[in-house]
Every structure is written in structure tokens, then in C-alpha cells.
Design goal:
globular, alpha/beta, 2 domains, D-Maltodextrin-Binding Protein, domain 2
């Protein structure tokens, strides 16, 4: 912690990152490319300095990440060296213990940030990052980057979970309408089951992470049926994992996806849910073999490899957000990343502050494929109409947002017994037994 304070003091003296965090908020939607190097003047200039960044972002998304800060690098003289790893969760601790942490780490979930921060290795966020977080993110989002009262990491990108994907043409042919409540969704499911189309296609498969798509279902239903206060108590074990309110939400999900008449369109019976890869599970929607697929906003990129599938209200596929118990209830779950620092060098603080700005958010989102909850982001910069709508949902002050519950739970539960419990449950285990087993595993 003393190092973090010293870093802030040094920046105040040098003026590289002043008290007011740089932003593009005077010109909403402007990117660094549009504003030129003037947009980066307050970050200072550095001759050949390098900042290492470590995260889970890979492949094409990593290429876009590098592109998002290319002009910043040119204008400031800082080289941002990004390294992505599928083994981030294990390797970040190895690197810290070996005395070789990165300058910055992009944490994929608040729970991991909290665990690593507890070791004392993560530095408190510098002044410019704190200012940006307070300007561009809600209190809830700020809290996800806070551990024991200390703010460590501003959010980066985000996703909205709980979308229900469908084929507009198939729905129009059958006269089906988007439901506005969960009761209407139940009624619609029963109606679709009477047609030649199976209501749902579902897949919990995800390699070593198999089961997480099932946890998303439960989290969406707990938030909607029990409310945000119960959701908050559940993810911290203030109420037991097998509380009756949680069991009710699980059973309501089971009424849909454990019903042999309702799944698994174009794939098989209920037993195939546990083994069907989540990325492949929704594709039968395109063929009219199933009517709906529950998955997050990022699923837009799974419909085709060559962008041959049009995602639009009148296109090949579209989506609506899972409704609540009442019409127009605005409650969603989602995910996101957080940028924490292990160094307080001036160039590191400059990069961390830039990544927390609206300038960076507009730059990255305009490259496609992702969104952010940054309030300075122009929704028009999103890569599609659906992603734009997801940005608007995140920015709407009436939206009740809760972070993915399994990402906030202790690792042994959230990415352990909860994941495996969902596989057991969809494979035949009863709700009470599954929930009791997860509760028993809580540390």
C-alpha cells in the first residue's frame, strides 16, 4: 500500500497524470483516432517505456485489444506488451510468488481480484483511476473492484447475460411474440411444444469449465424471482445455498430445461445438455429445430465464423433479455474484467488510467465484439444493434445489475461444486440434494 501512495504522489509532482483523469467526455463517442494525440496529452510522454499486461483475452480478441491502445502507444511513447493465457488464474499466483508479476493484470472476475489483493501484492488504484471510476461507473461496478474498503481496479469490458436468442422468421411464421414476464415465457414454451419446433436448445459443455452455462440460468432466475437483496445474500452465503428461495428458482429453471418435451431441439434429449458444448448448442435455432437459446451478449459471435448470419430484429437471429416476474422489470446479470496494478511506475499508472477512461472504452468497443459499462461509451460505437442495446441496458439508471454470482463466490464453489452440481442436476439429481451438496462445500 505505501508504494501505491508514493506512486500517486510522484504523479502529482510530475504532472504525467493530473488530478483530473483524461477523458473524451466533452465529445461523446470520440475515439483517440478522431481526437489525435491531443487526447493523450495529459498522460505525459515516455521514451521507450514498456508496460506489461497479463490477462485471459486470447486470439482475435487479443488482437483487437492491442489495436485499441495503438494510438495511445504512438502518442505517449509507451509500449504496451500484452500477454494472454488460458492458465491465467493459476499462473498469476505463480508469477507473484516468484517475484515476477506483470505491471498490470486484467482480472476476469472480482473473486479472483479479491483473492490476489488479499496477498498484499495488488496496489490500490491511483488517483486518476479512482476519478475515472467515480465518473464513468456506477457504485455497484466500483464495488466489484473494491476489496475490504480499498479500491484496487476499475472495470474494463462487460457482458450482459440472460439473453434469449431466437429466429425472427420462425417466430413470425408461427405467430409467437416476445414474452414480457416469466409467466408469459412459461406459457410460450408450452405453446411452442405443441408445434413441430422444440422450445429450447441447451448446452452446459465447456471443457474443464463444463457446467457454467447452467449456473447462468440459476443466477438469472434467482435475481428475478427472489430479488437483488436475496441474490446478494446468496452469493456471500449469508443465506444458505439451499435456501427455499434458491430452490424455488432452480425448480423453475428445471420446469423448462429438465422437461423432455421442451428440450433439446436438434440435439437430443435432456441427457445431452450436460455434454453439448454451449457454443454449438444454440445453432439449431437457425434451422428452426429449436425456438430459444439462453446465452449472454457475447454469443453473437458464435452464430457463424464468416459473419454470414445476420443478427438483427428482422435478420437470421435476434434476442430479448429474459423477462422478470413483472413486465418492464429491469434486472440483469453480467460479467466483466478489472485492471489491477503490481507496479506504481509512472508509465504503468498512465496505462492503467487510460484503460479506465471513456476514450479507451470507445476505442475498443468501436473495433467490435465487446461492450463496456462505461457511461462515457457511445452505444452507437458498438458493433451491432444488439450490442448497442446491451450498452444502453448497462447505462440505464433503472437497470438493476448484478455480477455473475459464480464469479463472486469462493473459487471452490463458484467454479467448482456449483459447476459440477449443475451437471449432476441436469443429469437427474434432485434439486434439494444438489443444493445441499453445494452448501456443504462452502468454505
Amino acid at each position: 500500500m505505501p508504494l501505491g501512495i508514493a506512486g500517486v504522489a510522484a504523479l502529482a509532482l510530475t504532472g504525467c497524470v493530473g488530478d483530473a483523469a483524461p477523458s473524451a467526455s466533452e465529445e461523446p463517442g470520440a475515439t483517440g483516432a478522431a481526437a489525435g494525440c491531443e487526447a493523450y496529452a495529459d498522460y505525459g510522454t515516455f521514451d521507450g517505456a514498456e508496460v506489461s499486461v497479463y490477462g485471459t483475452i486470447l486470439d482475435e480478441e487479443a488482437n483487437r485489444l492491442n489495436e485499441s491502445w495503438a494510438e495511445f502507444e504512438e502518442c505517449t511513447g509507451i509500449e504496451v506488451a500484452y500477454e494472454g493465457s488460458a492458465e491465467f488464474e493459476a499462473q498469476i499466483n505463480v508469477r507473484i510468488q516468484g517475484g515476477n508479476p506483470p505491471d498490470l493484470a486484467i482480472f476476469p472476475q472480482p473473486g479472483l481480484l479479491s483473492t490476489v489483493a488479499a496477498t498484499g501484492s495488488v496496489l490500490p488504484a491511483p488517483e486518476g483511476v479512482v476519478a475515472n471510476a467515480q465518473e464513468f461507473w456506477t457504485e455497484d461496478w466500483q464495488n466489484y473492484g473494491t476489496v475490504d474498503g480499498t479500491f484496487y481496479a476499475a472495470p474494463l469490458m462487460a457482458s450482459v447475460k440472460g439473453f434469449v436468442w431466437y429466429s425472427p422468421s420462425v417466430w413470425e411464421e408461427n405467430g409467437w411474440e416476445v414474452p414480457t414476464t416469466l409467466d408469459e415465457l412459461d406459457e410460450l414454451t408450452a405453446t411452442i411444444a405443441e408445434s413441430e419446433v422444440t422450445p429450447w436448445c441447451v448446452g452446459f459443455g465447456s471443457g474443464e469449465a463444463t457446467g457454467w452455462p447452467g449456473t447462468d440460468w440459476i443466477e438469472d432466475y434467482v435475481l428475478r424471482t427472489a430479488g437483488p437483496d436475496v441474490y446478494d445474500q446468496w452469493i456471500t452465503n449469508e443465506i444458505p445455498f439451499d435456501d427455499p428461495q434458491i430452490a424455488e428458482a432452480v425448480d423453475r429453471v428445471g420446469d423448462l430445461i429438465k422437461n423432455p418435451e421442451y428440450v433439446n431441439g436438434g440435439i437430443g434429449d435432456v441427457t445431452t445438455i450436460a455434454t453439448t458444448d454451449f457454443g454449438e448448442a444454440g445453432l439449431p435455432v437457425l434451422d428452426g429445430e429449436c425456438a430459444m437459446h439462453h446465452q449472454a451478449s457475447f454469443y453473437e459471435g458464435f452464430w457463424s465464423d464468416d459473419n454470414s448470419v445476420t443478427v438483427a430484429e428482422d435478420g437470421d437471429v435476434w434476442a430479448f433479455i429474459l423477462p422478470g416476474t413483472e413486465a418492464d422489470s429491469a434486472a440483469v446479470t453480467g460479467g466483466g474484467e478489472f485492471v489491477g496494478a503490481f507496479s506504481d511506475a509512472e508509465e504503468v499508472v498512465a496505462v492503467q488510467t487510460f484503460l479506465s477512461s471513456d476514450t479507451w472504452a470507445n476505442s475498443r468497443v468501436s473495433l467490435g465484439g465487446v461492450i463496456s459499462a462505461n457511461s462515457g461509451l457511445d452505444p452507437a460505437n458498438a458493433g451491432s444493434a444488439l450490442l448497442s442495446s446491451a450498452v444502453e441496458t448497462l447505462q440505464d439508471p433503472n437497470t438493476t445489475f448484478r455480477f455473475d454470482g459464480s464469479d463472486l463466490m469462493p473459487g471452490g464453489v463458484g467454479s467448482g461444486t456449483f459447476w459440477t452440481g449443475m451437471v449432476d442436476w441436469v443429469s437427474g439429481k434432485d434439486t434439494a440434494t444438489m443444493l445441499a451438496e453445494v452448501e456443504a462445500s462452502w468454505p
